[in-house]
Amino acid sequence: MNATYDGPRLALDFDALAHNWRTVCAAGMGQPVGAVVKNDAYGLGVAAVVPRLWALGCREFWVATLHEALAVRHSLRDAAAGAARILVLNGLAGTRPEDFAAQGLTPVLTGPHELAPLAGYAARTGARLPVAVHLDTGLTRLGFGAAQLPALQPQGALWRDAQVTHWVTHLGRFHDPEAPQCLLQRERFVEWTRQLPAALRSIATSSSVFAGPGWHFDHARVGSALWGVPASQRATPMLRPVASLHAPVLRVADVPAGTEVGYAGSYTTPGPRRIATVALGYGDGLPFSLVNRGYLVLAGRHVPIVGGVAMGMVAVDVSACAPGEVRPGMWAEVYGAQQSVQALAAAAGVAANVLLALSARLAPRSAAWQEEAPEVVA
Ligand SMILES: *Cc1c(COP(=O)(O)O)cnc(C)c1O
């Protein structure tokens, strides 16, 4: 790229990623930890994040789709790519088991309807595909329920046609593992897997991995915590934010009382104000709900968002800053060291991962920027 990059800049702190990885592994007390990197690593970018996790010792990656799995393989160099175990949470999802076998991928089966394609594959090739299996203990989303457990017994077709590596279940109240509903789900998980042949039992995620040995079983699969986004209502160890997002100031204007700011007068200045226009909008993933809500950070100060969120712009009131302190060409922090992604997400009325996920479209563009200018400009 020859021109200077002027779009929103997503930057990643890999020291923070290393810190969070070690914190999660320490909490897991030796059980294997897989990194959940679905939705382009929650928006941070698989290409940037997966090789770093590999270098930290992560050998297992969980994604939602076959295509995401291929992106994970592609992000790793030859030897690492071959050795990484990649599990696909959406299961076969209508694709052919051959596609998984060819790439050494493991589908996480979503229900009994996936047994027939596995049988077809075994008949065609004589091979048993490695699979993990979702158990639906209460989320009512994916997996085999209580009535379908007989299909998983050793004498059933599953074991004739496939090799089970993990039993997987997911909590409905993942942010609160001590909730009675979660305890019931765990009870079912224990009870059901007791009746089934041995495979790694995986229930712990970003929240429950910190909730003590009662949640560890044989395995943890962790996403949010690796990016420094707390997934728990309860106290968790210090995690450090990995992602930060900045956007440039385009203009600063002093306006009199009674001035409409943005479309349809969604804000009218109650007195003389200084308004900065920042180049970030819903097209970049800024939630539309931030009309007259929430803050950006400029010149070390939290400055309130005023007016609406346009496709590529938003206004902030910088009257509290000294005249000339905020200038066009400065970079406003959207989230990062001074404002957590959780804080802005709370103002928008969404979960932190929603805001993070929206940066998915920024990651590839930001990668181009980072090649051009590795320094993070605040
Ligand atoms: C997204 C997801 C995870 C990761 O959850 P975090 O709270 O981000 O760690 C784990 N398991 C399943 C089934 C998921 O869909």
TrEMBL record:
Binding positions (substrate): 141, 311
Domain of life: Bacteria
One GO cellular component, as annotated: cytosol
Domain Alanine racemase C-terminal: 242-368
Source organism of this protein record: Paenacidovorax caeni
GO MF terms held by the record: alanine racemase activity; pyridoxal phosphate binding
N6-(pyridoxal phosphate)lysine: residues carrying this PTM: 38
Name by which UniProt lists this protein: Alanine racemase
The entry's keywords: Isomerase, Pyridoxal phosphate
